[in-house]
Amino acid sequence: MTDSDLRLGLLQVEMRGTERPAIDDSKTAPVANSGRDAPTPTLKILLVEDNPGDAMLIRFALAEVRGHRFLITPCASLADAIAHLGDGFDVALLDLSLPDSEGLATLTSLQQAAPDLPVVILTGQSDTSLAAQALEVGAQDYLFKGEDSGWAVARAIRYAITRMSSLKEHRALLARMTEEVATARAMQLDLLPNDERTLQALVTQGFMLESLFEPSSGIGGDLWGCAPIGLTKMGFFVFDFAGHGIGAALNVFRLHTLIRNETDWFADPAEMLYRINEHLAPLLAPGQYATIFLCCIDTAANSMVWSAAGAPPPILVDGRHMETLDTRGLPLGLHSGTKYVNRQVPFPPGTGLFLYSDGFSEARDRDGAMIGEFRMMELAGRIAAEGGGSRLERLRDFFLDTTLPPFEDDLTALWITRPLALERI
After folding, report:
1. Which of 167, 42, 113, 136 shows the shortest CA–CA distance to 121?
2. What is the pTM of this model?
């Protein structure tokens, strides 16, 4: 006996039963089985199929499933199906070839009308590629017309409902995470210097400060900051935690708190880094660390003292003279007991300092070559020579023109200048 004979014989048996399913296409009709097992909750099915024979086969396939109850609403067109969506359904069984719609457009139209409705595609053996495309577009499963048993149809329905439920949970989780990232980003931006005392000190001591801060993933592992030290000194720092995202951002808050707790030591950057590292090293998991450049500029002595822990070398710009500063030192958080070294250079009016994170130097241009520290120095010289306007806006424009977005790392930069008196006017 062939599969079709078995199916036809089954249909004859169900037609003789006392609880045979209704097969008219005009009204919603229940499909149930008279088994003695406790019935499960009724599943409401939207059956969108314009071929009465195929629709009948689906009905009788479901009738052979014992212990389940299905309430079927038949529709022969997409418009009719959309009109019935207000009745509320657990799943849709959808033929992609309807009188008023054809192909994947049928699925996308139904999805637009009911985004959370699980969809099982009804297809013929010759349309397997189209069915596969439908899964990529967002259908939960597909069935071959006339070839699947009642249990196969029921299993596809249950799978579709479960998969859509998981998808909805994933969407809800993603929405919550997006909201939390936005909140964390706002909190991270609040760490940047914006208090009146710091801003007034920058003006009083004669500094001009430009900054750029663009985390690669909403929140990141970079941060910069500054703080006045007495009446004639200003401390600056830029640090970068290994990694990106929430884990790195949490470490940013840790390090920022430690820096704020040690601001009295800004005039001695090496001692400050030592003290911060002693607190930080026991807190971090293996593989977590931060590079940092920390300096103190004394406007009365016209000098700058700095210490560093593996940060990209800043660029000192004094008129036409440029030099990179030594940033050798073990990154913070790797080992307790690490000692750091102070270094010093003159910093009279007319001097500038360009600090940047490795998101710039390690970016790749459109030819795949790394930008590197030498090109960063060339770029700084070009920007300094041009004068006028925002230096860091020109830096950002250069990267947009030269590299391929999206940037894979956080981008942080500072341009600190002590302008001549004429320039300030």
Report:
1. 136
2. 0.65
